[in-house]
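Exam review. A common question shows you a sequence with its structure tokens and asks you to describe the fold in words. Practice with the pair below. Do the first one on your own.
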Amino acid sequence: MRAAVRPVRNIITAFRHQTSSYSGAVIRRRSHLIGSNASSVYRLPGDAEIHRFLFPAIFVSKAFSTDTAAKVNISEVNRAGPLVEYERRIAAGELVDGDACQVGTLRELQRLYDEIVESADACRLDRYAVPEKTVRNQWFWSRLMPQSSYSPVKGLYLYGGVGTGKTMLMDLFFDQLPGNWRKKRIHFHDFMLNVHSRLQRHKGVADPLEVVAGEISDEAILLCLDEFMVTDVADALILNRLFRHLFSNGVILVATSNRAPDNLYEGGLQRDLFLPFIATLKERCVAHEIGSAVDYRKLTSAEQGFYFIGKDLSGILEQKFQQLIGEHVASPQVVEVVMGRTLQVRARLLICIQYRYQLIDLSFFFSCDQVPFGANGCAYFSFEELCDKPLGAADYFGLCKNFHTLALEGVPKFGLHNRTAAYRFVTLVDVMYENRSRLLCTAEGSPQELFENIVTVSDAQQMAPRTSSRSRRNDDSDLCVDNELGFAKDRTISRLTEMNSKEYLEQHAEERQLSQEVANADAVQA
């Protein structure tokens, strides 16, 4: 079985290296590395002016910069693991030499890789070495004879600024692990949606969290969570018990985050009940900070982006949208979400949520002159429809599952008056980025300008006082002081920048072409 799995795994790994070159920050060298800055201005009748938001056209590897080159000793790569793959990609010209912060993180990942490989049998990682009966009845026997089996290997919690390559480094580590291991790589949003869905299925059980943890650990002993961020009180209250069960079942956690462990869920409701989870996390994981101050996402070119700045630009956005759908006609769509729900977009402007056997009409949420519609894998929405309504990550995952491109009209500047909408917009961008979706949008300002009134407590304390209290009230009336949103905005700005870059859009086009070829081949075989 292992002999059969290995060549398949090699093919999958090679495919990932080819199709995920940009998302993993693997950008091939080109003869022209630096181009000039570019921007375009579209003028409409009257005084309307559209600024097509573009970024500096600098072609640099997202993961490694030539400015701060750092070498890896040959003795460090005489074994398998992420450092070996890193050196291979440099030798192949797929990467330039990395900065010291990222190479230091690679060494931590290599250390973890070596420990896991050495303790693979003790960690029960090989899915084929675990008898099916043992896996199926593990929870049953644990109820009769409670026992803990903590992994002999501690996990790794990577944290640092946005765009520093955390996700790329974790993916590099994950891809080097054997394909027959019980491992899983998932975005934290998606992971928690899955947890809540499982909890729904196990209602009535004495301890549903223990059952859910047993199911998760049966599927994956090595759990890699990207963008670990706690903002929801429902998540905060169950994380400690959930992960205590997971760690007790031998799960090894590798996570990336913008926040240090001690700063997770800072200022959140009932945080005192969340603090035990921080202690558990620090006990079972080594915390490592990526100290790089460079946001590599902002060093990409963006000569073909779809981010338009200005007001009353629905005509331009609709024109771009029509170009993308071509000869296809926009029609009603049904979007599957989680826990038995479907989001339906009907021809007569009826939008409803179907939960199990009940159909709840939500059409009163939507104005008749702003109608969502879709065709050819593209969907068109107003900002209000996606971010001013009670939608969440589950709904956005459903959209991205059905549509590879979203057109979003009228993104406003954020502040105290629309803080909730700002949170939803951050979640939407996170989900789209994770799914490598394409975004077309019109906005009142650049990504930086959209969030200029969102600040952390520390930022607010450092702001210079106004000369008069009246002028301060007038200037700061919409200032939103929110630690979680203040930290999340940097990630959103960085991701919007990358999603508008030439490299990101080229990768999106390549993936769409590959998907279409696969679909055509399946149709021929059928």
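Now try the second one, then compare your answer with the model answer below.
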Amino acid sequence: MAAKRGTKTSMKNMEKELLCPVCQEMYKQPLVLPCTHNVCQACAREVLGQQGYIGHSGDPSSEPTSPASTPSTRSPRLARRTLPKPDRLDRLLKSGFGTYPGRKRGTLHPQVIMFPCPACQGDVELGERGLAGLFRNLTLERVVERYRQSVSVGGAILCQLCKPPPLEATKGCTECRATFCNECFKLFHPWGTQKAQHEPTLPTLSFRPKGLMCPDHKEEVTHYCKTCQRLVCQLCRVRRTHSGHKITPVLSAYQALKDKLTKSLTYILGNQDTVQTQICKLEETVRHTEVSGQQAKEEVSQLVRGLGAALEEKRAVLLAAIEECQQERLARLSAQIQEHRSLLDGSGLVGYAQEVLKETDQPCFVQAAKQLHNRITRATESLQTFRPAASSSFRHCQLDVGREMKLLTELSFLRVPEAPVIDTQRTFAYDQIFLCWRLPPHSPPAWHYTIEFRRTDTPAQPGPAHWQRREEVRGTSALLENPDTGSVYVLRVRGCNKAGYGEYSEDVHLHTPPAPVLHFFLDGRWGSSRERLAISKDQRAVRSVPGLPLLLAAERLLTGCHLSVDVVLGDVAVTQGRSYWACAVDPASYLVKVGVGLESKLQESFQGAADVISPRYDPDSGHDSGAEDATVEASPPFAFLTIGMGKILLGAGASAHTGLTGRDGPAAGCTVPLPPRLGICLDYERGRVSFLDAVSFRGLLECPLDCSGPVCPAFCFIGGGAVQLQEPVGTKSERKVTIGGFAKLD
């Protein structure tokens, strides 16, 4: 008895789920729109009629409704005609070949019917067949019928064939589409006739087909098209409209969707305490919103009354704005409360889902559960990421009447600055972190900013994350000094003015270099072709201008290619520890080699060097990303990365020394696109040098290096090319923020 009473309560609480959005009454022969919402068939016809569509409101029902359409009353000529077995193929050819599906021959511009969905307030396309191409939601019809029976809506169902006064119906017949008492059912279904094979059902006022039928081919649906998200029959599978689509049996779709819906529903039912707690919090937020709103209105009223008669009109405007904001928040909070209440056991959406899970007809269940699962999923996400739909604070309603007395006509509420937008093109990490941001257009100005950041690669501590903060930062950029090497920082910014603090910007993650940054300048004193090297005044950029040898090489392509190697070195040598530097290579460079080498070997090799035979010439005679395969016991004195025409060459000879294979980096013997900046990391003690993408810090190549003496950066040019060293962030004239002096946030 208690279980039965609980079922009745559950059915009563889900009445809102069973109302048509057009007529606000119980669904009658509901149709499923392409947007997965439902609408009564009669309401859909009426809406299409109001839109001016005539003759497109076909009946999607697959059952005959008049005696003229039954097989026994057809024309004698049609009755004597023997239908051939290839009838399905004939229908397929008519619908899928020669003309477009559903299009009459000779129709140049078929009319596409748009239906305004009352639920999602959007226009959905019904296709050329209109309502005739939609499925009936048989599962929803069954739920409505069970609901009517549970709450006794409409009274008893009477026999449709009894002489007056009719008796109460005890049986129904889907084939005859009528309800019968016991005597009338026996009378109209005599033994020995075809009607005697009709299966009786419970009496009902709405007769439905036994199963879902394809609206196009009037055959039972057997598959589900995941691409179109639509049930299809055997003939639909071979139509051109489903060519290349992912189609699965309806049993698989039924089981997968039922498992997902059951899992989501189980989660909601298992967190009823959470639902109730969140409802209590929302109700408390509503009370605070009402109190805060009332206080804000009183403050505004007091200020506006002090301004005299000239401010009376403005006062009304401000009060209306607060009232509108308050009502909007209350409406949103009330809607959120109602949404959460529908998640309680036996209520609204949950009750409806429980009833849908009782459906055993697989196509019908898939038909009805698709939209329901989306709603249950959204409800589950709202539980996991709960927060009130509106804030109870009305601080944005404060007024400043000091200097604004002469601007009464423009008097408005103070607004906090909007969330800043971090400029990811100008924000980067090198020797220091340079952070740049801007306010969105039409945002109130900010007096100053607060920068917060933290490392994400440190072990997680219990409780909320600890942010480091710097208050009252002026301007729209800042330098963060002394960052830890090889770390990942997350940063955010928010503005502040008299109205208070605004929202935080979106978090931006920055990787710091894997080693301390090496500061050096370019030194062009080495090599025999210094006249072809143009070094900038700040000694951070160099360009190689091709000369006569390159022109002569064009004539001797078949006999030999004599090119010159232009070399420029860094003015600093490394003798210990780990060092990192970055540079940008012009993508139009013909052939550039970027790397490091022993200072003595570099001076010995390139001071007075002669022309070489080929652009494949390796100036270091040791390891190079484009060198031939060789097995060398000792570490080479040079390590270079070969760049040409916007590509990086990772030669087969590098495979023995690179530690990046598979997922960790590109394979040897290939080319990869040239990143905007290249990073070089030298580990002097280990005798290893790594080449990185300086933007993402993705490894490109790792090589051994002879570190028996001072090692310095080196750049080689064959043909035209240009290299720009990355400028240290510390040289920028920006506001400096020392990381060590930051306070931690609790």
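Model answer, second protein: The first strand starts at residue 30 and ends at 32. The two ends are 55 Å apart (CA to CA). Full marks require stating both points clearly.
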